[in-house]
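Hi V.,

You were right to ask for the full record rather than a summary. Here it is.
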Amino acid sequence: MSLLALTRAKRCVVLILYKNQSHLWIFQSPDAILTTQMKTFVIGDIHGAYKALLQCLQRSGFDYQNDRLIALGDVCDGYPEVHLCIDELLRIKFCAYIIGNHDLWALDWALHGKAPQVWTSQGGVGTMFSYNNRHTLVPKAHVDFLLKAYSWFELQGKIFVHGGFDPNFSLNEQDRQKFIWDRDLLRMAYRTSLQDSSHKFSKYEEIFLGHTPTGHFESTMPVHFCNVWGIDTGAGWSGLLTIMDVYSKQFWQSDETPKLYPGVHSR
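Predicted structure:
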């Protein structure tokens, strides 16, 4: 446990952070919002699209030193600039990175040189190319970045997960595979919203998910079903990358990734 005291305008604000290997809880006093100028943004699956990442950060006016970025995972696989993407995320002072299924595949390659066909055929080739096709060239800082990623991130009644979870059980009763692969929660929220848009899944005020492209719901924008948000707008395919202000819900998008990478096939 660590304790950080911030003093602004002769007032003391205490942020208490409880952290273990897989997740992070932040309990923040109300004054912390008033006395710090930090904004909190969430960004969808980046998939090696460095140009799209820069566009989102620039268009949203993201402050690398004072704002918080919650990344929903899958920075790896797809477009061929994974190396630059992770470098950029490492520049952000307050970045909470959540592990995705593609990240775990890429991490297995970085650590052990494993490159199964199921991975290379789904964007792994782009990650390998980004590191000159040699897993030994992946910087330790990049490996550590993925190793230290969270299975979920909880902030002031909101939960951020790559794929999803079973709302009928506590998160501690579920494993990482569920968090990174699940698509049922978003689909269930969609079906439920057609009958009762006020329905609340689990105890959380809001749930933010990546992993399942919003194109599945015929949208190029973030989708909102009940208390569940889907933020993956298909940057890893032929869509766009989206960054959203968690509290105002204003969002900004990159150009379509195939236009940023003409002639490059992400999958």
